[in-house]
Design goal:
Number of helices: 12
Radius of gyration: 24 Å
Number of strands: 18
Distance between the termini: 70 Å
Shape: globular
Structural class: alpha/beta
Order of helices and strands: HEEEEEEHEEEHEEHHEHEHEHEHHHEEEH
Length: about 450
C-alpha cells in the first residue's frame, strides 16, 4: 500500500509540474504597427492586437502595450485571422502508398462511429506545411463507406490530439452515391452493376438512419415500466444526436441529381440541420437551398468542368453564383485521399473565386469567418475580435495573392516556429558543399 501511495504522490507531483509548465508557456503578446484586417469589422491601420494566453483581449489603434508583454513588431505588415479549412484529411494521411500511414478509408459501408479527433496524427509533416500558408484550423473528415463518421475541427499544432481539438464532433458525414451512370474509362462496371451499387448504397443510408432512430427511441425509453434494457451499439450511439437534430449532418454531393435526392431524403427523414459539401451544381438549386437555409461548403474551385459542354470557368464561378443567390457558403478544396498534401492551396481557391466574380471581401470571409460560422464555431475563430482564440497570420501582403508570404503564425495564442520538412530540406541542400565545377550562384 505504501508503494502505491508513493507512486500516486509521484504522479500527482509530475502532473503539477506539467501544469506549471503549461501556465509558464502562456504569455501576453502585443502585435503592433501592422494593418489589422479584422474581417468581421473595419480594417485598422497601425493597429494593435493584444493576446493573453490563448485569447485575443483587445483590438484597436493606439492601444497601450501591457507591461511585460512580448512585442511583435508588424510595421509594414498585415495581420489577418488564420484560415479555416472546412474539408480535409490533414493528419489522417502521410504516405498514401503505405497502408499503415493512411487512415482515410475505413472498411465497411456504415461507419458512423468513426471519430476524426482520435485518428489525427499530431506529428504529420503536412501540418506545418499547411500552417505556412496561414491555415490554423481544419475540419478533419474520416472516410470510407456511405456513412463516414463524425468530423472534428482541429488546430494545426499541438502535442496531442486533445491539445489540437477545437470542437468535436462537428457533424456526421454522409457520402451520397452517384445517381447517374458513369461511362468513364476507369469504371469497368456495366450500367446494371452501377445501378445496383447505387440502389444498395441508398438503401444502406436509409436503413442506417431508420435503425439509429429506432435505437434512440428504445434507449430513451429504458427505465420505464415494462421496457427492457437494450445492448449498446457503438454505431447507432454515434448517430443518436444526428437523428435527433442535435448534430448537423453533412451530405457530400456535387451533381444536380445527387443534390435533389439529398433534399428529398431530408424531407423523408425530417432532417433540418443539414450542410452540403461539394456543391458543384449547388447554384442550380440555390433558391431551394436558400429557402431551407442549407449552407454549402464548396469542395474546390480550382477544378475542370464536370460536363463536356460546360464553360471552362464553371467551377470558378460557383461561389459567386451562390453569393448572388443569398446562399450561405464557404470555400474549401477537394479534400479526400491525397488532399493533405494540397491543403496549403486553400487561399488560392478563394483567390480564383474572387477573380471570377466573387467580391474580394467575401472571398476572404469564405476561408475565415464563413467556414467558422457554418461549422458552429463562429464565436471562437474566423475573425480578429476580443474573446476569440488568437489564431492569426502575419503577412507581407494580401494572403489571397500567390506572391504573398505568410511570415508568422500565431496559433492558439502561441508563436509557432515557421519551419517544416520542406524548409529543412531546402536549407540542407542549399548549404551543400559545392565542387569546383559547380555553376556559380
Amino acid at each position: 500500500m505504501n508503494t502505491i501511495v508513493r507512486n500516486l504522490r509521484s504522479v500527482l507531483f509530475a502532473v503539477s509540474l506539467v501544469g506549471v509548465a503549461g501556465l509558464a508557456q502562456a504569455e501576453v503578446l502585443a502585435l503592433t504597427g501592422g494593418t489589422v484586417h479584422t474581417v468581421s469589422g473595419p480594417t485598422i491601420a497601425n493597429g494593435v492586437v493584444l493576446v493573453d494566453g490563448a485569447r485575443i483581449t483587445a483590438v484597436g489603434a493606439g492601444l497601450a502595450v501591457p507591461a511585460g508583454a512580448r512585442v511583435v513588431d508588424c510595421t509594414g505588415k498585415h495581420v489577418y485571422p488564420g484560415f479555416v479549412h472546412a474539408n480535409t484529411v490533414l493528419g489522417l494521411q502521410e504516405i498514401s502508398t503505405i497502408v499503415g500511414s493512411d487512415d482515410t478509408q475505413e472498411t465497411g459501408n456504415v461507419n458512423p462511429n468513426q471519430r476524426a479527433e482520435v485518428m489525427v496524427n499530431p506529428e504529420s509533416d503536412f501540418l506545418p506545411v499547411a500552417r505556412f500558408n496561414g491555415i490554423t484550423t481544419a475540419l478533419v473528415i474520416p472516410g470510407g463507406g456511405a456513412i463516414r463518421g463524425t468530423s472534428a475541427l482541429m488546430h494545426l499544432d499541438g502535442w496531442t490530439q486533445e491539445d489540437m481539438t477545437v470542437a468535436a464532433p462537428v457533424a456526421l458525414h454522409v457520402q451520397w452515391p452517384a445517381m447517374s451512370v458513369t461511362r468513364a474509362w476507369w469504371d469497368t462496371r456495366s450500367e446494371d452493376e452501377q445501378n445496383k451499387a447505387r440502389d444498395a448504397a441508398l438503401q444502406a443510408i436509409t436503413d442506417a438512419f431508420e435503425d439509429a432512430r429506432a435505437y434512440d427511441r428504445a434507449r430513451t425509453a429504458e427505465g420505464r415500466d415494462g421496457v427492457p434494457r437494450h445492448d449498446a451499439d457503438a454505431r447507432w450511439d454515434a448517430m443518436r444526436k444526428a437523428v435527433r437534430g442535435e448534430l448537423p449532418i453533412v451530405f457530400h454531393a456535387d451533381a444536380i441529381a445527387q443534390l435533389r435526392a439529398v433534399l428529398r431524403f431530408c424531407d423523408q427523414q425530417k432532417l433540418t440541420r443539414v450542410t452540403i459539401l461539394g456543391g458543384y451544381d449547388a447554384w442550380r438549386v440555390a433558391d431551394e437551398l436558400k429557402a431551407r437555409d442549407i449552407p454549402v461548403i464548396i469542395a474546390g474551385v480550382l477544378a475542370l468542368p464536370n460536363r463536356p459542354d460546360a464553360p471552362y470557368d464553371e467551377a470558378f464561378t460557383v461561389a459567386a453564383r451562390l453569393a448572388k443567390a443569398g446562399v450561405r457558403f464557404c470555400i474549401a478544396d477537394e479534400g479526400g485521399g491525397g488532399g493533405a498534401a494540397n491543403a496549403r492551396n486553400l487561399p488560392q481557391h478563394a483567390a480564383m473565386a474572387a477573380a471570377f466574380g466573387l467580391d474580394r471581401d467575401e472571398a476572404l470571409k469564405s476561408v475565415t469567418l464563413y467556414p467558422a460560422r457554418i461549422l458552429g464555431v463562429g464565436d471562437r475563430v474566423g475573425s480578429i475580435e476580443p474573446g476569440k482564440l488568437a489564431d492569426l497570420q502575419i503577412t507581407d501582403g494580401d494572403p489571397l495573392e500567390v506572391a504573398t508570404h505568410c511570415e508568422q503564425v500565431v496559433l492558439n495564442g502561441r508563436l509557432v516556429p515557421m519551419e517544416s520538412r520542406q524548409t529543412r530540406l531546402f536549407h540542407k541542400y542549399d548549404g551543400r558543399p559545392r565542387g569546383p565545377k559547380a555553376r556559380p550562384r
